[in-house]
Design a protein that fits this description.
Order of helices and strands: HHHHHHHH
Helix content: over 70%
Number of domains: 1
Shape: globular
């Protein structure tokens, strides 16, 4: 891996750390967190539509491989949902005392690990894919961290969690890149297809579901489109 790629891979980790310090001093209201989640959802949808799915097509992997990988990713995320719900039921004090629920915390770290793996796969695929995903998903990480904050979470906990998020995305990016460098088109395509299912889960079952727990304002839809446009603009400016 070149020094240039290492610098780009480190961007999400740095953004995660900065987001942690910001979240430690700013506790957005429920309404503001809903808007933040809509923006992050727009960014992830754009990452899927603008970069990830087209890159899967460019890999020219066999259709059955891509379909199987996406199905496997869907089943994996479904199993994750069942597991996190089980953890939440075992953690009755979650959300009532200081701290973040174990289920939400586990889901967040797995989502971040998948983000890192996607970034690494993008660099292994070559071209500008890795750089665009690194910058775009950094925006998603920043807003995801802000969405995790609440009055029940201490500043120390936020910094510890976000520091772990930054380290996780960095390690998974490097591991993903090292594992997939020189891999066949079928393997890279399968890895990206699996990752696409994970990102789709993040949008539909995490970000938007959480965002809809409060009464929405009409501007929420506009914020979602703003998130999409932000990532798309990054992709267009990177060409």
């Amino acid at each position: 891996m070149t020094q240039h790629n290492l610098i780009l891979i480190s961007i999400p980790a740095i953004v995660a750390l900065c987001g942690g310090f910001l979240a430690a001093f700013w506790k957005p209201s429920h309404q503001h967190r809903s808007l933040i989640q809509h923006f992050a959802a727009g960014v992830v949808l754009a990452a899927l539509a603008v970069e990830l799915l087209p890159e899967i097509g460019r890999e020219h992997a066999p259709g059955p491989v891509l379909i199987g990988a996406f199905a496997l990713g869907s089943l994996f995320m479904y199993g994750l949902k069942l597991w996190t719900e089980h953890l939440e039921h075992q953690d009755p004090i979650s959300g009532k005392k200081s701290g973040i629920g174990r289920g939400l915390l586990l889901a967040t770290f797995i989502d971040v690990a998948v983000d890192g793996f996607i970034i690494g796969a993008g660099f292994a695929a070559g071209g500008q894919t890795g750089a665009i995903l690194a910058i775009g998903l950094s925006v998603e990480l920043l807003f995801l961290e802000l969405a995790l904050t609440s009055d029940q979470v201490s500043s120390r906990q936020i910094i510890l969690v976000t520091g772990g998020i930054g380290l996780t995305v960095l390690l998974c990016s490097v591991i993903g890149s090292m594992l997939l460098v020189g891999a066949s088109h079928a393997i890279i395509g399968a890895a990206l297809s699996f990752s696409a299912a994970a990102l789709l889960y993040l949008v539909t079952e995490e970000l938007l579901m959480e965002a809809h727990t409060v009464q929405e304002k009409p501007i929420s839809t506009l914020v979602l489109f703003a998130g999409f446009l932000t990532f798309w603009s990054i992709e267009l400016m990177g060409k």
